[in-house]
Amino acid sequence: MKDKIEEILKYVKSAIETVQTSAEAQALRVEILGKNGKLTELFRFMKQVPAEERQAMGQLLNNAKNEADMIISAKETFLSDSELNEKLMKEKIDVTLDLNEDEIGALHPVTLDFMRIAEILTGMGFSQIDGPEIEYDKYNFELVNVPKDHPSRDMQDSLYITPEILMRTQTSNTQPRAMENIRPPFKVFTFGRVFRKDDIDATHTPAFYQLEGIYVDKKVGLADLKHDLSLILKKYLGESTKTKFRASYFPFTEPSVEVDAECNICKGKGCPACNGAGQYEILGAGMIHPHVLEMNGIDPNIYSGYAFGFGFDRFPKMRYKIPNAKVMFENDIRFLKQFK
Ligand code: DAH
């Protein structure tokens, strides 16, 4: 038994010299001290040791176990420390370095997709406007026909900063902002972040992008909405993408519609990306409610208009098959570089 112990210790001392990684050190630990390790096994033979030698032998074995543990631990700690340092060095960013022209990063996939749709919209006579992300409750809700006690406020869990100021929950806040500043006729769109109380998972983030279009003129009708949106979607999603308009409800439009598009991954068959439905809901739209026009100083007897709103992150996610919503917000250059 004594010889065996010495033999194992000798083996440990020579094996440790060849260990190059912390994983190899761990493997050696298992080989010697694991459940079926070489030293651990010897404890099982203690019963066979004559009673008068048992105490001394037990001590010897325990000492050997501690020694082996010390030898392996020291190497393991040393190696895992240097592995961590190496990793940190590799990922180190020197902020004082001159920027190499070839390494200035890449545009975010959401930005790239927005640039595509912006070109389509400007080609159709829309101008881009901007709206604030930190917004008065008045613009986000009240002036788009969602009074304080309106049940549709439950549809959106909002992040309030004060009772009157919140992170906008929808880009529809630009509807009253546009009507306040521009006299009809106007045809505008806006793009930006909106915020809702949501925990992050594969499909939810507390901030996401929306695109909103607004057109106000004399005699704008539902046929214009259907025509213009169909054209935008064909150009944006591809000529062959099938879309379906169906009746819906939004407080700021009457009548309201929602548009479903055929899933561009499974072509309508049903797949994980569209939750098996073969299609997905892409936008809400409708004829701007006369009361909204009126509240915002536009005479509904003279003017009418349509509005539409997209959740925007979904399109680049589908186009590039990005499985996780979280990476869209981390701005990791290794992720972004793929979308040049
Ligand atoms: N603001 C709506 C939302 O966040 C989307 C929307 C629906 C916008 C209908 C519109 C519209 O302009 O007409 O769910």
Tell me about this structure.
The chain is α+β, with helices and mostly antiparallel strands and 340 residues long. It folds into 2 domains: 2-90; 109-339, BirA Bifunctional Protein, domain 2. Helices cover 41% and strands 20% of the residues. It has 12 helices and 10 strands. It has helices at residues 2-18, 22-33, 38-44, 51-90, 109-123, 137-140, 174-181, 222-237, 290-295, 314-319, 327-330, 333-336, and strands at 127-128, 134-136, 159-160, 165-167, 186-195, 207-217, 243-250, 253-262, 279-288, 304-311. The strands form 2 sheets. A 7-stranded mixed sheet has the order 1-5-6-10-9-8-7, with helices on both faces. A 3-stranded antiparallel sheet has the order 2-4-3. Helix 1 (2-18) packs parallel to helix 4 and helix 3 packs antiparallel against helix 4. The longest helix has 40 residues, at 51-90. The termini are far apart. The mean pLDDT is 89. The chain binds 3,4-dihydroxyphenylalanine (DAH). Residues 170, 172, 212, 250, 253, 284-286, 307-309 line the site of 3,4-dihydroxyphenylalanine.
